[in-house]
Amino acid sequence: MNPRLVGLAGPLQGNVYPLPQNEVSVGRESSNQLSISDATLSRRHCVFVPSQGGFQVRDLKSRNGTMVNGVPVDERQLEHGDQIWVGESAFVFLLDESENPQRSIVEFTETRDLGSLLLLRSDESYYLDLERVSAGPSVGRMARELNSLLKIASGIGGIRDRDSLQWQLLGFIFEIVPAERGAILLLDRGREYNSVAWDRVQGPTHPVRVSRTVVQRATTERAGVLVSDVVGDDSLSHTQSLRDVKVRSLLCVPLMVSEKVLGAIYLDTRNPAQQFDESHLQMMTAVAGIASLALDNVMHCERLVQENSELRAGTLLESEMFGHEKGAFTGATAQKKGKIEVAEGGTLFLDEVSELAIGLQAKLLRVLQEREFERVGGTRSIKLDVRVIAATNKNLPEEVKAGAFRGDLYYRLNVITVTLPSLRERREDIVALAEHFINKTSRRCNTRPKRLSTDAQNCLANYSWPGNVRELENAIERAMVLGSSDAIFPEDLPESIVESAPSVHHAAENYYQAIADFKRQLISRALQNAGGNYIAAAEALGVHPNSLLRLMRNLQIRAGQTA
């Protein structure tokens, strides 16, 4: 025997972990024998324990639970080929000397005639249409099935790794539908399928045969397909591909977002006592709706391409964004894909979008409206699927009024707007952000975090923060590096922050306020002696005029003010 875990999805995907003859704990803490960097894991999540010549898995009251073959377990004796889910990671438990499965195998077969089948579109599902609820099952069963759908939505909604999401989804499906084999098929750029598949009976190394005809019927008609009794259907019982694997019942539902087809979920069973019926098709249609949104989000999050519209000149920016053909301009010695084309299937982040030239704004509008573009020097339109996020520090409606930004582009971009208030508008967050930057700097510098003193908190809370959050982070980093004690005090902060602190009662008792008061008196007297001329006053004080202006601004001193 050779007991081991093989990573199917998650941070340890593709890795093989031999199980020794002693306990192996799993969790996100480094003290675990199998430590996994995954926020969805508990510190100590589960443990693998030698038992009965093999191993059992035991959940350690983890927050998100441990699942074996899609079923939540507290304790379970493992068999060869069992699939274990913990957080965003999926493993297969292998006991014999069989080859380690590196990827599930899907074999596509052809079915000439589908015979008698049931089609169900998403808008006909009583789980997805409140007006059809009365046509559903009994109240008790409906409540159980809605609870299962809620569990699936919460279980996969936060996953950001595509393979992890698909494995988790398969596990949930096996829990609610009596399928022996399943496959999740995702279209890659609208052509070939990338798949995750599982045979619960014959194990992970056994290929899963999928009827391409059934999948094409489901995705073309955008409807779930159910063949409840393959053997009893004369037209299907003679189909070689289905007869070879003794399929008794099969089900396939499309994965769609709006009108875009992402792929399909394919299930079948050889057990005559557990054939699929219309209730399973109804349930899987609802599951497909939930899964489609989660998969679409994951696919867009996988590829993020950024472009700063402010950093490049017009022609260079156009080439960087849209790419160019060979010979399009001097120096274009080869074809080059632009940022928009590279972001295909993902997300394009345009920073400082207000700085785009008017000509480029028109090309971007075409991308958003028609989902196509042309490279610089090209004549062929290229189709693409990309999500666009734009950011700016300017007021775009005012830019539109001034003629500096196209109104049609603004209204096309303005689908969901998130306004981020400046730091001075949310002073209640300043201390919390400061503590976050303290921890961040301490990790980067490998030092102990420092305490933020009350006086330092007051200085931070009363500063105007013209440089916003970046200025706060720089101030904290400076204090962490230059401070000599285990706490951050006002003297560790930049002078501009300390000097802007408001006056308090009993100023003489406050060291920092006393210094600020003395500076005010000294500068005011120098200005009075110089007749209000700040350049002459700076010369008398022995400081640069710019430094004096900064001090006057921080201390709120006007040129005509007397001491």
Describe the model.
There is one protein chain. Helix content is 35%, strand content 21%. With 563 residues, it is α+β, with helices and mostly antiparallel strands. The chain has five domains: 4-94, Tumour Suppressor Smad4, CATH 2.60.200.20; 106-231 and 245-301, GAF domain (Beta-Lactamase, 2-Layer Sandwich); 339-414, 3-Layer(aba) Sandwich (Rossmann fold), CATH 3.40.50; 423-499, Helicase, Ruva Protein, domain 3 (Orthogonal Bundle); 505-555. The chain has a six-stranded antiparallel sheet, covered by helices on one side. A hairpin with a 2-residue loop joins β10 (83-86) and β11. It is globular and about 105 Å long. The termini are far apart.
Features:
35% helix; Rossmann fold; Beta-Lactamase; six-stranded antiparallel beta sheet; Tumour Suppressor Smad4; globular; 26 strands; alpha+beta; 563 residues; 5 domains
